[in-house]
Amino acid sequence: MDVEQLCRDHGAADVVIVHDVAEIDRRDGLSWFDAAIVDLMLGGVSTLDFAARLRNAGVPFVFASGYSDVEEIERSFPEIRLVAKPYSGDDLIEALARACGRAKAA
């Protein structure tokens, strides 16, 4: 699935794909995020610290991952939705819309 195109198809004006956590800091930290779809691992590195930074900065986000051990996520981020792979584009967009406050929770 092309997540970038999926986001554009649903109204995102600018979509940036980040391949490793260090790239985020090279791009001036969190200032350019309006929302995020966070895989639990980027370049073999956990993104949980990055997710905590997003939460602390008030940036809406969802986790999207095939990572099978969700206990740490549920414990550390109980309010954040995990969209498990394989997921549909509709599931991912709905989760992100809810995180951004643009859809009503079921």
Q: Could you describe the 3D structure shown?
A:
The chain is of the alpha/beta class. It has a single domain (3-99), classed as 3-Layer(aba) Sandwich (Rossmann fold). 38% of the residues lie in helices and 14% in strands. It contains 5 helices and 5 strands, in the order H-H-E-E-E-H-E-H-E-H. It has helices spanning 3-9, 21-26, 48-57, 71-76, 89-99, and strands spanning 36-38, 41-42, 45-46, 61-65, 82-84. It has a 3-stranded parallel β-sheet with strand order 1-4-5, sandwiched between helices. Strand 4, helix 4 (71-76) and strand 5 (82-84) form a beta-alpha-beta unit. The radius of gyration is 13 Å and the shape is globular. The mean pLDDT is 85.
The number of helical elements comes to 5
- The overall pLDDT, averaged over residues, is 85
**Biggest sheet, spatial arrangement of strands:** 1-4-5
Largest sheet: 3 strands, parallel
Shape category: globular
Assembly type of the shown chains?
Answer: single chain
**Roughly what percent helix?**
25-40%
Low-confidence stretches: none
The strand count comes to 5
Task: Based on the coordinates given, report the CATH architecture.
Answer: 3-Layer(aba) Sandwich
CATH fold description: Rossmann fold
The CATH superfamily is identified as: Response regulator
Count of discrete structural domains: 1
H and E order? HHEEEHEHEH
- Regarding CATH, which class? Alpha Beta
Radius of gyration: 13 Å
Keywords: Kinase, Phosphoprotein, Transferase
Domain Response regulatory: 1-100
InterPro entries: CheY-like_superfamily, Sig_transdc_resp-reg_receiver
Protein name: Histidine kinase
